[in-house]
Amino acid sequence: MEQLKTLQVRPSGSETFTQPLKKEFKMKVAIYAGMFKENSDGAVKTLYELVNSLLLAGIEVGVWGFSITPQERKGLTLTKIISFPLPLYPDYRVTIPNPKLKRQLKKFAPDVLHITVPDLVGTFLMRFARKQGIPVLTSFHTDFPSYLKSYHLGIFYNLAWKISKWFYNKSRITLAPTEEIIEKLKSKGIKNTKLWSRGIHLDRYSIDFRSQSLRAQWGAKNKKVILYSGRFVKYKDLETFIEVYNLFKERGPGNVLFVLAGDGPTRDELERRMPDALFPGYLEGEELSRVYASSDILLFPSTTETFGNVVLEALASGSPAVVSDIGGCKEVVGKSLAGLVAKANDPLDFYQKCKQLVEDETLYQEMQQKGLKFAKKRSWNTINNKVIGQYLLLQRSKEKEMRASAGILVSDY
After folding, report:
1. Residue 180 clears pLDDT 90, i.e. is over it
2. Separation of alpha carbons 143 and 305, rounded Å
3. Which pLDDT score, from 0 to 100, does residue 92 have?
4. 121-162 tens-digit pLDDT
5. How confident is the model at residue 1 (pLDDT cuts 50, 70, 90)?
6. Could you check whether 6-199+379-405 and 207-375 share the same CATH topology?
7. In the sheet where 339-342 sits, what is the strand order?
8. Chain centroid offset of residue 185 CA
9. 6-199+379-405 architecture in CATH?
10. 38 Rama sector, left if φ>0, alpha if ψ -120 to 50, beta otherwise
11. Which residues contact 151 (CB under 8 A, 6 or more apart)?
């Protein structure tokens, strides 16, 4: 992993200063992560990469969560929180505030608290930190209000956004992964938003992993492979994926194979309704890398993504993407010019976009090359420097406030 040597911070407008990140650079960051389970969803992968960058920069990190992969790393403290499964979706859990959290946080003595989940514990920690004078930064990873519609609970959609507005506006800064999500948060009344995009490891996702033997195993020697990668859950809009599969069966062309990599509660239904599709299961490591690179097109119809890490992984692997015009994925495709955007929940439009990439080899090759070029500029440490910059600004603002309250004259940094 590349070294974090310097950090450019833009507090406002065009003002810029450079802060060296050295081992003697002192900072402690507490993160409430909810889940911190290795090889989990995109949000958790993002937090893993953030922690990696922080530790590399010599910043001490404490992570609190209800599901944590045990690990021992210098400068990292992990604390598990009691939780209970969520009735509608047992993979997610409800955490309950505990007085121990106060003692744990006081003992860790963070300079900054980063909250990633707007739940009961997140609210509890927010209030405690404000009383203790600890600057709070939040990040928006999951569009929970939109999930409600997938579970026929849309009646609570507006209420969920009101609660989100109240929560995020209690923090000094809210980080979001795309400009579109930032605009959405602003439209819901959430202030002080900043961009924190997403990165990728090019040694893990690369066209070099393309495997002709795997394609032969799939029976895809002379076919275009259309891939889905992710959780098999309702809020990923997989009904649209099924309908695109049916349209190819009905209208052609026939040189297409569908591969769905992942797992989840709707897997049995997907296998029943797409009998000719392949389901290699939940994959990680080089197995997942080979599946990405051995596919040709990523079809990802989800409308609830805040970024869409899988889209960036596909582009780095040489697979252009077809995504929805609602959610964060379209911004990745729009900036990279490495795919097509279809109308949300419109299977015919998704089919036509996929068909265009299957049949137009010149267009396909152009988009493939643009995706590879775009991904090369997205290293995680470059992306995470911006988060560290926000931490630094909050730490310095805290120091100024403490000195000012003590009657000490503080010069500008």
Report:
1. no
2. 7
3. 65
4. 999 999 999 999 999 999 998 877 777 776 677 788 888 889
5. very low
6. yes
7. 278-281, 256-261, 224-229, 297-300, 321-324, 339-342
8. 16
9. 3-Layer(aba) Sandwich (3.40)
10. beta
11. 88, 89, 234, 235
Residue 184 has pLDDT above 70, yes or no: yes
Spatial CB neighbours of 273, under 8 Å, sequence gap ≥ 6: 242
Amino acid (1-letter code) at residue 390: Q
Q: What end-to-end distance do the CA atoms of the chain give, in Å?
A: 30
pLDDT band at 381 (very low <50, low <70, confident <90, very high): confident
Q: What is the mean pLDDT of residues 246-272?
A: 97
User: Nearest-CA neighbor of 78 among 67, 63, 66?
Assistant: 63
Which DSSP letter does residue 8 get? E
Tokens standing for residue 382:
């470059």
Per the DSSP assignment, residues forming a β-bridge with 136 are 113
3-state secondary structure of 29: strand
Write out the two tokens for 84.
């209970």
Q: What are phi and psi of 162, to 5 degrees?
A: -65, -40
Distance CA 340, CA 16 (A): 36
Helix H segments across 199-237?
Answer: 212-218
Q: What's the pTM value of the predicted model, to 2 decimals?
A: 0.74
Peptide bond before residue 253 is cis, with ω within 30 degrees of 0 = yes
Environment class of 72 (CB within 10 Å of its CB; exposed 0-12, middle 13-18, buried 19+): exposed
Task: Report which residue type is found at 304.
Answer: T
For tokens 């990405």, the residue is 292
Nearest to 33, CA basis, from 113, 106, 150: 113
- Written as six digits, the tokens of 307 are 């970024």
**CATH 3.40.50.300, domain 207-375, yes or no:** no
Domain positions in the chain are 6-199+379-405, 207-375
The C-alpha atoms of residue 5 and residue 113 are separated, in whole angstroms, by: 24
